[in-house]
């Protein structure tokens, strides 16, 4: 694949994964407290290999691979530390775009539960699969997209583009507050009583 990408010179997303889709969930062991550093280092190796194969550096887009060879809490940790992830990877390679594919991921089920009492409980893989409809995670996806956009993601991958409307709305309002300040001061008028 790398020689083909080097020949075509098209933008290329390189995603972190261990193994393949059949074996990846057997390869989720990362050094304790070091998932961000480990995933960044392993992704850097793949990006460097692409560059060595002749893919122009400016065509490379990195993806931490949420859901691929990572369990729920590991995915949440990568999202939580997205800025650190980008910084660690960027120290080796310089600045480059980051894509986050968070759409409808199973680990979002913890955020999509409707009952506050079940929110803090650990959700088993069986419960996630039995919950059925992945579309029910679209609102949780919107929240994760907003988080990713605020913490270093340049691109997001979603199933339902409408979930990005929530992110666009939030980010636009945030920029307005940053450039224009919070609510304008209201003028106080007192009505005279007759």
Measured as a percent range, the helix fraction is: 40-55%
Strand order of the largest sheet: 1-2
The tally of structural domains comes to 2
- Major beta-sheet overview: 2 strands, parallel
Count of DSSP-assigned helices: 9
What is the CATH class of the largest domain? Alpha Beta
Give the uncertain stretches in residue-range form.
115-130
Question: What is the radius of gyration computed over CA atoms, rounded to a whole number of angstroms?
Answer: 21 Å
User: Beta-strand level of the residues, as a percent range?
Assistant: 5-15%
Could you tell me the CATH topology label of the largest domain.
TIM Barrel
Superfamily (CATH H level) name of the largest domain:
Dihydropteroate synthase-like
Structural class, please? mainly alpha
Please give the number of β-strands: 4
- Secondary-structure arrangement, i.e. CATH architecture of the largest domain: Alpha-Beta Barrel
Arithmetic mean pLDDT: 84
* CA(first)-CA(last) distance: 84 Å
Morphology = globular
InterPro entries: DHP_synth-like (IPR045031), Dihydropteroate_synth-like_sf (IPR011005), Pterin-binding_dom (IPR000489)
Protein name: Pterin-binding domain-containing protein
Pfam families: Pterin_bind
GO biological process, one term: tetrahydrofolate biosynthetic process
